[in-house]
Amino acid sequence: MRKTMQKIKTMKKMPGALALRRPLGTLVLAMSGLLLVTACSKKEAAPLNSAKVIRYIGYVNYYPIFIADVKGFFREEFGDEVTFEFNHRMNGGAAAMEAMAAGEVDFAALGDMPIVQARANGLDVQVLSSVFVSTKCASLVAAKGSNIHSIPDLRGKKVAVQGASVQNKLLLKFLEKEHISPDAVDILYMKNRDQLAAFLGNSLDAVVTSVPYTQSIVEQTGAYEVLNAEGYDTIRTYLAASGKFLRQNPDYAVKFLRAIIKANAWIQEHYDETMALSAEEEGIKLEYQKINYETRTFTFNLSEDSLNGLQDTVNYLLAQGTISETLDARTFADRKYITEAQR
Length: 343
Description:
This protein has about 350 residues and is an alpha/beta fold. The chain has helices at about 25-30, 35-40, 65-70, 75-80, 95-100, 110-120, 165-175, 190-200, 215-220, 245-250, 250-270, 270-280, 285-295, 305-320, 335-340, and strands at about 55, 85, 105-110, 125-135, 140, 160, 185-190, 205-210, 225-230, 235-240, 295-300. The strands form 2 sheets. It has a 6-stranded mixed sheet with strand order 2-1-3-10-4-11, with helices on both faces. Helix 3 (about 65-70) crosses helix 11 (about 250-270), helix 5 packs parallel to helix 6 and helix 8 (about 190-200) runs parallel beside helix 9 (about 215-220). It starts with about 25 loop residues before the first helix and ends with a helix.
């Protein structure tokens, strides 16, 4: 049976008007010099591909990884000598990077923003592959009676978003394209799962969030979707791994990716079963789960488009002042693992 990973600590609320204008405090602490020294300790000398436990964190709606776990594709690749500790209930990408910095996670699927922030803060994290792209999975949702019908209407409004997330970047892209300063909007940082309660409590005017949270908010509060990311940004998710783990277990990265690729092919032939399994796991309506899946295109590669997308996030965070120096995405995104897995 799969072991349950210890619960990752919930990240503290981010203070200030715009968390993206400075590095996350929790990440800075997690990536302190002590951890960086530990990453280069004598334990690096362990025999290659000798790890007995593989630890992963992500979401159920990263379907191929979830299915590879529950349907035994990872077990098929690794055999019975390895124990899996998989957590499909991630508490946000920043928390996942904090866990990786603490040595609690080997692989993580998450948006590009927290990966770049973590890398900029000194974490030895490597990108192995894209997971999905989308322009429809995230959107601006306005409260009933808010009179918000376009981006300029957000001035002076209370708008919630999950901090250090792809939705956070999308909100800034919305504002930037309409030449609106983030300071003109009252930005509140809260987890996706807490946004519905805030709407029900009439404490929000709008939110930038993702399906299926969008559907729940609309259905239960009378809110409405204003627009999605199309024309503003492309939402991208990547599979990342601890650099230390990769150096010690290079073959494991290939096996991990190979299992996901097999699961992705399996989903095409078992769509209904996939949706039923994932809806049950998340405890959401089947129709929401289908919308969730159908707004994403799952693709496992490190194409030029994938790499350029990662670099775009680097450049954007640099311009925002979130990171202080330019990073070359190609120095922490390595094609060799996905290339080998696809053979």
